[in-house]
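Marked as duplicate of an earlier ticket. Keeping the data here for the record.
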Amino acid sequence: MLNHRLRRLWVITHRWLGLTVGLLFVIIGLTGSLLVFHYTIDEWLNPQLLLSVESDAPRSVDEVLEAAELSVTDPGLQLFFADPPRSTAGVWTVWFRNTDDQEAGFTQVYVDPSTTRVTGQRVWGEYLMTWLYSLHYKLLSGRSGEIIVGLCGLILMFSVASGIYLWWPLWRHSWRAAFAIRSGRRFQYDLHKSTGIIAAVLLLVISFSGVYMIFPAWIRPCVLAVLDDDQPRSENKKSTPVTAGDRIDVSRATAIAQSVFPDAEFKRVKLPSQPKDSFEVRLRQPGEVRKSSGNSRVWIDQFSGEVLSVRDWNQRSAADAFFAWQFPLHNGEAFGLVGRWIVVVSGLMPAVLYVSGLLVWWRRRRTRRSQVTPSLKLQEST
């Protein structure tokens, strides 16, 4: 009797979590599927902006940055960082932040790597793919939206766990009953049950990684308490200002960083904006799980060129590895093209579960009403 009541409670909880928060799961899942290939989609939509047709030898990063700065007329925009082309046909993306309006999005200037021709500029958040990202990550609502999305991730994890609990007796009874999808009146229920259990592990992994990225301050201390992190770290990442000192060229800074990791691929350089700031160069070494941007870093004194601090992926702790895996798991890049497509399909699953669950609830609700109505008429007649 107690087990029956407990199961009934789980059924009600699972049902109403889906009916009340399920639509948000659908929005987050569908936008996440589109964002897996957001660079490819953006290039397909805007080839004149993001693709280069030139094939000459590439210009230096300093020439690229100079061309980008000359194209910007707003005095409130400050050069912040730059990303090299993602492919042989790509362009540089040079990022400017608005010093007059901290809430304004970054301005992105695109520069042809072989001619330093500026192909155009956009404001991050004001074009389709970044709008989808903002919808996915924070429901277009700032930090409050981020919190809602993070809580949705926690609720999704609980909903998946409750679904596994409700499905488990079917598995114990018969594997055919656990996975069968029958036609007729049972179709929606079987589709919901089988789709949910097949996608359960993926949804748990993706939702947890999303929760981590929104609430790192909650999760990092818990992970560090379990995974002892005794890696020595250099805290000195500040340049030493010199009298009438000139900043070294950006090309020299990136060359110094690549000399630290000769086999690494250059991914981004962050420019110093204050006298005590340093260059931060992001690289990806062979074998790094984060393929799009890498996890290795080199901080360089902007005046002397001295290497101030290094983050080496090959000397990572267990905690570092755990944190580094979260984003590549979330977008699937950890497992290459196959992993990305798996995440795309996983993002569609909340829509399948929501629609099938809604249809099951509605049919049962209509059935109960049809059973109650005759009994009421009988009572009225007597």
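See parent ticket for discussion. The CA atoms of residues 97 and 106 lie 5 Å apart.
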